[in-house]
Each structure stands twice: as structure tokens, then as C-alpha cells.
Amino acid sequence: MTGLLEVNNLKTAFISDDKTTQVVRGVSFAVNKGEIVGIVGESGCGKSVTSLSIMRLLKGTSGTIQDGEVRFHDQNLLDLSEQKMRKIRGNSMSMIFQDPMTSLNPVLKIGRQLMQGIMLHLKYPKEKARKYAVSMLESVGIPRAESIMNEYPHQLSGGMNQRVMIAMAMSCNPELLIADEPTTALDVTIQAQILELMKELREKQNTTILMITHDLGVVSEVCDRVIVMYAGRVVEEGKTAEVFENPKHPYTEGLIKSMPKIGQKQSRLYAIPGQVPDPANMPKGCKFAARCPHVMDICTEKEPDLIKDEEGRKHRCWLYQGEYEGGEKVDVKSSTGN
Amino acid sequence: MGRYIIKRIIGLIPLLLAVSFLIFIFIHLIPGDPARLMAGKDATNDEVEALRTYLGLDKPILEQYFIYMKELFQGDLGHSLRSNAPVTQLFGERFLPSLQLSILSIGWAMLIGILLGVISAVFRGRWPDYFGTITAISGISVPNFWLGLVMIQLFAVQFNIFPAGGIETWKGYVLPSFALGAGIMAMITRFTRSSLVQTLQEDFIRTARSRGLGERAIIFGHALKKSMITVLTIAGLQFGFLLGGSIVVETVFSFPGMGRLLIDSIQFRDYPVVQSLLLIFSLEFILVNLIVDILYGFFNPKIRYN
């Protein structure tokens, strides 16, 4: 496996009048070809901003990428001109978003929206693009694709619209698909279908998928590897099964504990106490210290590094820093997963 | 769609009947005696009474209304009390110039207004935006008759490029349409800007960017169509007003339009002309609104009438 996407020390901040608030605070990770990697964390942990930064889609927000590298095919996307970046977006790297009802243009026909990207990147003439668009809709399991081409998003259900979004995103055979909470706005049954569809795409076209979610269920369902983010930083990374079985970071542990389990006889679900620190006013040490059940003196003084242990797991916690004194620090330059 | 339009047109009938009744009553409530005005200062009371009977103005007001309606349904709008010419003829002479002036004014106002609005929205907070804002505020603040007078002074008197009045050639339309359109252009600029700024924040714009579309394709292909609803509403209302003719601007430019016909007729208590004109203005307004409603469906597929 080779690294397709490598994010190094990415820092993204939102700038308002006089305040700069860093929400992605030096994030590093890598995604290998053909993998499905999940990024999990609660709202505001910087996972969505990370994905928008990778695509450089912060235009229209007050966000700016301050530092770091996004290496895709060994070129740093952050160095590219906007024009060159446009050739990559929707072509070799594409994205689907959380709410399919608002992510499609309500005043344009589905067909037109689908064909735009196909004509732009694949340079197909109109007729050919149309036929291709119909075949794309069919491939994501949309019935009566031909007539849906002439319909508007409000005439379709949320699940159907998300399929249209996926068809749009997949139409130029991207190597990397970034899915930002693709199932959050959908019913549970539809969620399962969409996840199934994404797994299928991976099987058929060997598409690499970066799945941004707050739903551990989604992660365990589809992801090979999982990256846990907290307060703008990666706090843990590893193979999904290993992380779920044996979480290293107390935050991951808390997340897993707070998932409802079938057969569990408990009146209340577990909740991690406390709140995410305010990004404008970050504590000095470990950002999770205030909520951590294992907090030690050092935790509030100094922030631990993200280290990689001999099993290939990565974590950012003082509980293990001593054990792996010689462990490899991965804060600055991340190596690929395995 | 066809059925919707027919339904709307049928719905116009009771509306127009109500409007015609209100107009008729209100005009007769205006103080002033048309028989006295027609007969002249020197006429005796008997002569004035005879004229009143001849014109049918001595009958009860409701009876007058029914006579008026009967004639109206026969396509007879009556005769002017002042010139004795048929109202349809007077109307025919004035309608076309007013219509042409209205189309011209709304046309350039929309063209420039949308363009300036788009530029302001795209360069929000930078100098093209400030330029657009200043243009718009000046356009709204300057009274159109003043603008007309300044333009006559400048382009007719000083440089002699356009005539100061009359419509012998197309040049006669230029200054009046500019004076009429300036305020509308300014309004359309503001509405386009705010609507487009809002649309550009929407999720589907981010989707379009994530497909690799360029800014021009995003603005003209994705955002503008969504923003057009607001602009269309403003433009439709303004066009309705324009069709009624502008009394002030038409007076400044001695333009032979409906506005001047109306004001002259009111001064003379020329009931048949005034009430026909008001009825026609109402009809025009209602029709413009119908057209705007139909166009809504084109710009926003969620508004489709069944």
C-alpha cells in the first residue's frame, strides 16, 4: 500500500475582525490507496474543517490555512494555484456533504448538475455526457434514472439526493472521495444503504475514501482505520478493530463507552463529563485533561506528543509516553499507517 | 401551466369589477363640476344644467355607473368631456410611447442593475462594492425630475446631443428613460447584491466548487438564477408603476405619455378619461403581476402552479 494522501501539520484558523481562532491545530495523518479511513470526533473538533482544508474549499468562510502540507500524489495541494486546484477538485479528488437536500442546487435540474462536472473534467460533448450521467445514476442504484435527469432535487427524497451526490462525486472516477458526514441527515435504513453503496464503490473501483463522521457506528461499519480528533488535534489513530477493542486515549475510551449497546441493561448512557475547551482559550497542557478520568499532574502542564508505538498505533497521552520512551514522534512528519 | 393561466385570467374579472366600481365612486367624490368647467365661466346656470343633463351627470351615481359599465362591455370607453374625442383614441395615441418608454427604462435598469449587483456581491467589501453602493444610493436619493432637469441642461442645452423634449426621433426617449430608470437601477443593484451574497453562502455553492467549477460558472450558472426571484419581484412592481406613466418626468420632458394625459384629465374633471385610464392602469398592474408569477415558476421550480 502506498500513501495517496498525506496531511502534515495542517493548521487552519478562522479569522474574525481582530481574533484568530485556530480550529485545526497541527493535524497529521496519511491515507493509503484503496483504504477507507474514518475521522471521528465531536462537533467542533475540526474534522470538517480538516476535510475542507484538504479540498481547499474554505472560500466563502473566514477560514484560512495557516501552515502545513497536503500531499496528494506527492504534490503539495496548498502550493497549487486556484486554477490547478480546480482541475483536481471533482476530478481526481471529490467530496460529498452532510445534507443532500441543501447541497444540491434547488433551481437546477439533476441532469444539468451532474453533467457540468462530466463535461468540465472528462471533456465529453453534451450528448455523451448525458448518457454517461444516466449510467452513473443507474450505477448508484437510482431507479428510472432517465426521467430523474429532468427532475429537481426537491422532487427526490434525501436518500435519493445523497445517491445523486455520490454519482456526481464518482462521475470522474476520483482516486480519493472525501465524505463529510454523508449519512448524518438520513434515516437509519437509508444510512445503511448509503454505507453499503460506498463500500461497493470501494470494491469495484478501488476508490480511497476519507470518511468524516461523529458516528462510531459508521466507523465500525465501513472504516479500515480510524483517526480520532479532539480539539483540533489527532489524539489517536489505528486499525478500527484494534481501536475499538483496546482504545488507548481516554477520550476514545469515553466515546466508545458512550455508545449504546444492544442487551445492555443500564438506565442512562455514559457521557464524558465536561465540555470541549473553547478554541479561543485553549488550556496549556493536554486539551482533554479537564475531562479525563486518568488525569495526572503533568497533563495540565505539558501537552503530550502524538507517538507511534511498536504495534503501529498512534496516541497522544501521557499514560503511554513513558512506556514508549523511545517511541517515534509523529507530530511533525506523519508516516503512513502500516 | 396553461390551466393555471386561464384560472388566473378568469379570476381577474371580479377583481376588475371591484376596481372599476371603486374608481367610479372616488372620481365622483372629487370636488369640482365638469359641466361648469365645460360650459365656461360666462355660461348661465341654465346652460350648465342643460349640459349636465346632456352628459347624463344629473342621474343618480349608481345609474351612471351601470351605464358606464354597459358601454364598457361594448368596448366603448366613452368620450372625453374636454375634446369630445373617443377615449380609446386618446388612449391609443398615448399608450405606445408610454409602453416603449417603460420597456426601455426597465430594460436598461435591469441590465445595469443586475450587472452592478453581481459585481458588488462578488467583490464584497472591496472598492467595486463601494462603487456599486454609492451609485445605488445616489440613484435612489436623487429625485427623477431633478435628474431630468440636470440632464436637459447638460445634454440638450450644453451639448445638444439629445432633444429636451418630444419624441420625434428615438433620441427623444433617451433622457426620459434614463431619468425614470436611474432609481429602479439603483434598487435592482441593491437587491441583486444582497440576494446574491446570501445565495453564495449556501451549501450547494460549496458543492459546485467541490466539482471544480470556476467562479464565473458558479455565479452565473448556479447562484444568479436562485437570486433572480427577488430581483424579478422588484422589477415587476416597478414596471407596473412605469406603465402608468410618470407624471413628473413626462412633464419635464413634454413627453406625450399616459401620465400627462391623466393629470390633464384630472384637472379638467374629465371623468370618462380618468376612470378609463385608472382602470387600464389597474389592468396593466394585474397583468404584470401575473407575468411575474409565471416567471417565478421558471426561476424556482418549487413554485409551479397546478
Automatic annotation (TrEMBL), chain A:
Sorted UniProt keywords: ATP-binding, Cell membrane, Membrane, Nucleotide-binding, Transport
Record-annotated ABC transporter domain positions: 5-256
PROSITE patterns assigned: ABC_TRANSPORTER_2
Gene3D superfamilies (alphabetical): P-loop containing nucleotide triphosphate hydrolases
Membrane topology: Peripheral membrane protein
Protein's UniProt keywords contain Metal-binding: no
Compartment(s) of residence: Cell membrane
Family: Belongs to the ABC transporter superfamily.
Protein name: Dipeptide/oligopeptide/nickel ABC transporter ATP-binding protein
Automatic annotation (TrEMBL), chain B:
Membrane topology, from the record: Multi-pass membrane protein
Keywords associated with the record: Cell membrane, Membrane, Transmembrane, Transmembrane helix, Transport
Physiological role: Part of the ABC transporter complex GsiABCD involved in glutathione import. Probably responsible for the translocation of the substrate across the membrane.
Cellular compartment(s): Cell membrane
Top-level taxon: Bacteria
Protein known as: Glutathione transport system permease protein GsiC
Family, as annotated: Belongs to the binding-protein-dependent transport system permease family.
Annotated InterPro entries: BPD_transp_1_N, MetI-like, MetI-like_sf
UniProt-listed PANTHER family: DIPEPTIDE TRANSPORT SYSTEM PERMEASE PROTEIN DPPB-RELATED, GLUTATHIONE TRANSPORT SYSTEM PERMEASE PROTEIN GSIC
Residue spans crossing the bilayer: 12-30, 101-123, 130-152, 172-191, 229-253, 273-299
Domain ABC transmembrane type-1: residue ranges: 95-296
